[in-house]
Specification:
This protein is mainly β. Helices cover about 5% and strands about 65% of the residues. The chain has an 8-stranded antiparallel barrel. The model has no long low-confidence stretch (mean pLDDT about 90).
């Protein structure tokens, strides 16, 4: 079983040159047990706006040479705001055109670096090449 928590600062850059840059926080909680994967994303950009999305999946293949795990995932729950920063982010990270409950899609996660003594992992989502630095909670 792996219980992993990843946190990042997030910025929303408006297309308008005079608009203010919005700062927020992103959190990814990843739990893997017996070939089952749960990904829960949390996002907070404004004091009163909290978003989340939950994905569940099954391991299809493990490529031991590259430490890459191939999964089939589907979104099981979500809460997005009307103008959702998290939805936009997830479309890129998961390489999707849209997000829907029950939609199955492939996703690969590669462990790029691991320091088990310090409980630290760097993971990469493919094909988007998004990186997360994470704490291994076990």
């Amino acid at each position: 079983m792996y219980d992993v928590q990843c946190q990042a600062s997030a910025f929303n850059l408006s297309k308008q040159p005079t608009a203010e840059i919005q700062h927020g926080d992103m959190l990814l909680h990843l739990v893997e047990e017996g070939g089952r994967l749960s990904l829960t994303y949390y996002s907070a950009f404004e004091d009163n706006v909290r978003e989340y999305a939950v994905f569940e999946g099954e391991l299809l293949a493990l490529h031991t040479g590259s430490l890459t795990y191939d999964y089939t995932l589907n979104m099981t729950d979500y809460k997005f705001s009307d103008v959702s920063h998290l939805n936009e982010y997830l479309l890129h990270e998961l390489n999707l055109d849209s997000l829907k409950i029950g939609q199955l899609f492939p996703q690969s996660i590669q462990i790029l670096d691991a320091d088990l003594a310090r409980h630290f992992l760097v993971i990469k989502f493919s094909p988007s090449n998004q990186l997360w630095a994470c704490n291994l909670l076990y």
